[in-house]
From TrEMBL:
It comes from Halorubrum coriense DSM 10284. This is Phosphoenolpyruvate synthase. Residues 391-461 form the PEP-utilising enzyme mobile domain. The keyword Protein biosynthesis does not apply. One of its GO terms (biological process) is gluconeogenesis.
Length: 785
C-alpha cells in the first residue's frame, strides 16, 4: 500500500508512488492506493520468458520509421498477450477490492511511475500512460498498458537517441482511488524563483488534468504568507472542465455553464486551508514544493508533490511575482525588437556605458540583435572554409551568416555581422541559440582584427576593445537555463502564446520557455544546412535520405513539445540562398528574390522536393506525432490551396483529419481570406515581415528604405484586423509568427482583435505572456465598467 513506502523507495515504486507514500507518512490527506512495483514488471517479463525477445524487438534504428512502428507493435503484443502469473493477478485485484466502500467498486487512477522519469540530462516524463476512472474489469489491462507504454515509438526513439539501454528502465504503476474533484489545480508553496514566502495557486472546475494539460486557463491566486492574506486574484474564463461521466465512468470534457465560467473557483477560506497544507508539506520536505491538489465535498486532497527546482541559488527570499518581471519585460522586448535607441545613438557617435565602463573604446557598433555581454577573441570568417577557425569562446565576425554557419555559431561566444537587421538569419539564429549578437555594423569585418580580444554587448549593440569585468569569457553557455523563465508560473491567458523555432538545435531551449507550442518551425534552415539544393541532395542520396533529414529535424522539436502543437512551415527560401549551395548553378538570377520564385509558388512549379517534404510529414504522422500542423508559405489564393491539397492527398495526408493552414504574407491572401477558408484551411498565420514589405513596397533588406519598414503601419494593421474578423466569423484560427509578434504594441492590437495565438521569439515569450495577460484583463475590466 502507498502508506508503506516513502521517498527512499523510488527505485522500487517510482517517483510518483514514493512521493505519495511520503505525504501519507507525514499525515497529509492523500487518497488511498497501492503500487504495482517495478520488480513486479521485471518479474513478469522474465518469468514469462519475453524479456530477451522484448529488448531485441525494440533495438532498432531510430531513424527507420517502419522499424519503429514494428517495434512498438511487437512490444505491445508481447506484453498485452502474455497472461499475468496467477499470484500477481490475485494480489493486484485483492488490493484493489480493499479500496471499495460499502461493496461498491472503486474508481481508480492508474498511473505509470517510471524509475527513471527525471534524470539530470534526460527526462522521460510524459512518455508513459495514465488512465482515469478505471474499474476492476479494466484494471489488469490498464496496468499492462502502462508497462507497454515504455515502448511507444516516441519512447524507443528517445532512449535510442540518448544512448539509454531499454533494459535499464523499469516501471512501477500507481493505483489510487479517484477523487471526483469539484475543483482542483496546482500550488507553489513559495515563490518559485526567489523562495519568498508567497504561495501561488492555480484552480479550475473538475479534475486537475484540465489544468496540468493546459486544456483550460485556470484562476490564479497569490497569497502572501508573511502578511497572511490574499495578495492577487485573477479570475479566468474557464470554458471547459473534465469530469467523470456518471453512466460510463469515463473522463469526459464538458462545457462549463455560463454561470460558472467567470465565477471564482476558490474562496479566501479555501485558499487559507490550501496554504496551511502547503506549509506542512514544505516543512516536511524542508524545501518549497510544487503540489497538485483536489477538493471534493469540502475536503482537500493532496495528489502529488515535488520540489521546486527553479529557485535561484542567489535568491534572498524577497520579491514579488510578476511586477518586476513585467517592467523589465517591456524593456527586454524593446531590445529584442530593436526599438531601443541605444544602438542608434552609439552609431551616431554618442557615448554609453557597459557595466560602468566608458564607451570611448567602442570599435564598431550596430543593432543589438541578441542580448548578453561576452568577451572573446575575434575570428573573421570571409569564406565557409574559414569556419573551422572559430573555436569555443571566440567572437565570430562575418559579412552575413548563412545556414551552413550554424555549427560555428553554436561554438562562438558571440556573433558580429556587417549586414542584416533584426530579422536577418544571424539575428534569428543567435537569439534562438542564446548567443549574444550585434548585426548590421557595416564595417565589422574591416575594422576588427583577427585574434584581437574584444567585448561584445548584445544589449547595447557595441563591440569594445579588451575584456570586460561584466563578461565571463571561457565559461560554457547554458542556453536552456537562460531561456527558462525565472518563475515557472505561466501567466494564464485565453490567447495562446507560442514560440518561433528556426533550427532543431533550439527546440529544447524553446520548450524551456513554457510556450503553448511552436507557432513556426522553419524547414528551410534544415534543408539549406545540407549544403546542397533539395534536387541535388535527392539525386546524390535518394528521396528517402532527404525525407530522413527532415524527419530528424522536425522530430527533435516535436519530441520536446509533445503533446503541445508544433506548426511546421514548408520550405520558403529565395533563389539567391539556393544559388549558394551545391547544385544551385541553375537557379535563376532574380533582381529581387524576395518578390520572386519562392514559397508555395516554387513548390507547386517544382513539385518533386515538395512531394518529399509531404512524404516526410506523412511518415511523422504514422509515427504518432499527432501534434504536428503543416503550414504553407506565400499562398495567394484558392488556386494555390487546390494545388496544396492535391499534393497532400497524393502523399497520403488527409486534409480533413490533419490540421493545416497558410501564411498570410501578401495583401492578396489577406483580401481573399474568405476564399481560402472555403477551400478548407484550419488556420491562417500572419508573416508580418513579408506582409509589411509587400504592403508598403519596402524591401526590408534595402538600407535606403529600411527606415520605412513599419509593421504597425495603419495599412498593415487594417489587413491583419480585417483578416482576424473574417476568420472568427468562419471558424478559422488566426495566429502571428512574424517578428512583430514580440512587440507590445502589436500584442495589444492582436488581443483586442481576438487573435487565437501569438508566436514570439524565444527570448520574448514570457514578456509576451505578461503583455497578453495585461491586455486581456484590461478588456475584461472595460467590459464590466
Amino acid at each position: 500500500m502507498l502508506e508503506d513506502v516513502d521517498a527512499g523507495d523510488v527505485g522500487t515504486v517510482g517517483g510518483k508512488a514514493a512521493s505519495l507514500g511520503e505525504l501519507i507518512g507525514a499525515g497529509l490527506p492523500v487518497p488511498p492506493g497501492f503500487a504495482v512495483t517495478a520488480g513486479t514488471y521485471r518479474t513478469f517479463i522474465e518469468e514469462a520468458g519475453i524479456d530477451v525477445e522484448l529488448f531485441d524487438a525494440v533495438d532498432v534504428d531510430p531513424e527507420d520509421s517502419a522499424a519503429l512502428r514494428e517495434a512498438e507493435a511487437r512490444a505491445e503484443e508481447l506484453i498485452l498477450e502474455t497472461p499475468f502469473p496467477e499470484p500477481v493477478r490475485e494480489e493486484i485485484l485483492s488490493q484493489y477490492r480493499a479500496m471499495g466502500e460499502d461493496g461498491a467498486e472503486a474508481f481508480v487512477a492508474v498511473r505509470s511511475s517510471a524509475t527513471a522519469e527525471d534524470l539530470p540530462d534526460s527526462s522521460f516524463a510524459g512518455q508513459q500512460e495514465t488512465f482515469l476512472n478505471v474499474r476492476e474489469e479494466d484494471l489488469l489491462r490498464r496496468v499492462k498498458e502502462c508497462w507497454a507504454s515504455l515502448f511507444t515509438q516516441r519512447a524507443i526513439y528517445y532512449r535510442q537517441q540518448r544512448g539509454f539501454p531499454h533494459e535499464d528502465v523499469d516501471i512501477a504503476v500507481v493505483v489510487q482511488r479517484m477523487v471526483d474533484a469539484e475543483k482542483s489545480g496546482v500550488m507553489f508553496t513559495s515563490h518559485p524563483s526567489t523562495g519568498a514566502p508567497q504561495v501561488t495557486i492555480e484552480a479550475a472546475w473538475g479534475l486537475g488534468e484540465a489544468v496540468v494539460s493546459g486544456t483550460v486557463s485556470p484562476d490564479n491566486y497569490v497569497y502572501d504568507r508573511g502578511r497572511a492574506e490574499v495578495d492577487e486574484v485573477t479570475v479566468a474564463d474557464k470554458k471547459v472542465e473534465m469530469v467523470k461521466d456518471a453512466e460510463t465512468g469515463e473522463t469526459v470534457q464538458l462545457d462549463v455553464g455560463e454561470d460558472r465560467r467567470t465565477e471564482r473557483v476558490l474562496s479566501d477560506a479555501e485558499i487559507g486551508d490550501l496554504v496551511a497544507l502547503g506549509e506542512r508539506v514544505e516543512d516536511h520536505y524542508g524545501t518549497p514544493q510544487d503540489v497538485e491538489w483536489a477538493i471534493y465535498d469540502g475536503e482537500i486532497y493532496m495528489l502529488q508533490s515535488r520540489p521546486i527546482t527553479t529557485i535561484r541559488e542567489d535568491a534572498g527570499g524577497e520579491g514579488e511575482a510578476g511586477g518586476g518581471g513585467d517592467t523589465g519585460g517591456d524593456a527586454a522586448a524593446g531590445a529584442a525588437t530593436g526599438d531601443g535607441g541605444t544602438a542608434g545613438s552609439a552609431a551616431n557617435g554618442g557615448t554609453s556605458a557597459v557595466g560602468g565602463e566608458e564607451d570611448a573604446d567602442v570599435l564598431v557598433d550596430g543593432l543589438g540583435a541578441s542580448p548578453g555581454v561576452v568577451s572573446g577573441a575575434v575570428r573573421i570568417v570571409h569564406k565557409l572554409d574559414h569556419l573551422d577557425q572559430v573555436q569555443d569562446g571566440d567572437v565570430m565576425v562575418t559579412e552575413m551568416t548563412m545556414p551552413d554557419m550554424v555549427p560555428a555559431m553554436k561554438r562562438a561566444a558571440g556573433i558580429v555581422t556587417d549586414e542584416g537587421g533584426m530579422t536577418s538569419h544571424a539575428a534569428i539564429i543567435s537569439r534562438e541559440l542564446g548567443v549574444p549578437a550585434v548585426v548590421g555594423t557595416g564595417n565589422g569585418t574591416r575594422v576588427l582584427e583577427d585574434g584581437r580580444q574584444v567585448t561584445l554587448d548584445g544589449d547595447k549593440g557595441t563591440i569594445r576593445a579588451g575584456e570586460s569585468a561584466s563578461a565571463e569569457p571561457g565559461e560554457e553557455f547554458e542556453p536552456v537555463e537562460a531561456a527558462r523563465p525565472e518563475t515557472p508560473v505561466k501567466p494564464m491567458t485565453a490567447t495562446e502564446v507560442k514560440v518561433n523555432v528556426s533550427i532543431p538545435e533550439a527546440g529544447e531551449r524553446a520548450a524551456a520557455t513554457g510556450a503553448d507550442g511552436v507557432g513556426l518551425l522553419r524547414i528551410e534552415h534544415m534543408v539549406l544546412s545540407l549544403g546542397k539544393t533539395p534536387e541535388q541532395y535527392i539525386a546524390d542520396h535518394g528521396a528517402r535520405a532527404y525525407q530522413d533529414e527532415l524527419i530528424e529535424g522536425v522530430r527533435r522539436v516535436a519530441d520536446e513539445f509533445y503533446p503541445r502543437p508544433v506548426r511546421v512551415r514548408t520550405i520558403d527560401a529565395p533563389t539567391d540562398e539556393f544559388r549558394e549551395l551545391e547544385g544551385g548553378a541553375g537557379e535563376p538570377a532574380e533582381h529581387n528574390p524576395m518578390l520572386g520564385w519562392r514559397g508555395i509558388r516554387r513548390s507547386l512549379d517544382k513539385p518533386e522536393p515538395f512531394q518529399q517534404e509531404l512524404a516526410a510529414f506523412a511518415r511523422l504522422y504514422d509515427m504518432g506525432y499527432d501534434n504536428l500542423e503543416v503550414m504553407f508559405p506565400l499562398v495567394n489564393d484558392a488556386k494555390d490551396v487546390e494545388g496544396i491539397t492535391r499534393h497532400m492527398r497524393e502523399a497520403g495526408i488527409d486534409p480533413e483529419t490533419h490540421r493545416w493552414g497558410v501564411m498570410i504574407e501578401t495583401p492578396a491572401s489577406a483580401l481573399l481570406i474568405e476564399e481560402l477558408a472555403e477551400a478548407g484551411i484550419d488556420f491562417a498565420s500572419f508573416g508580418t515581415n513579408d506582409l509589411t514589405q509587400y504592403t508598403l513596397a519596402v524591401d526590408r533588406n534595402n538600407e535606403h528604405v529600411a527606415d520605412r519598414f513599419d509593421e504597425l503601419h495603419p495599412a498593415v494593421l487594417r489587413l491583419i484586423g480585417d483578416t482576424i474578423e473574417t476568420c472568427r466569423e468562419v471558424g478559422v484560427d488566426t495566429s502571428i509568427c512574424g517578428q512583430a509578434g514580440s512587440k507590445p504594441e502589436m500584442v495589444e492590437f492582436l488581443v483586442e482583435k481576438g487573435v487565437s495565438s501569438i508566436s514570439a521569439n524565444i527570448d520574448a515569450v514570457r514578456d509576451v505572456q505578461h503583455e497578453v495577460k495585461r491586455t486581456e484583463q484590461r478588456l475584461l475590466l472595460d467590459s464590466v465598467r
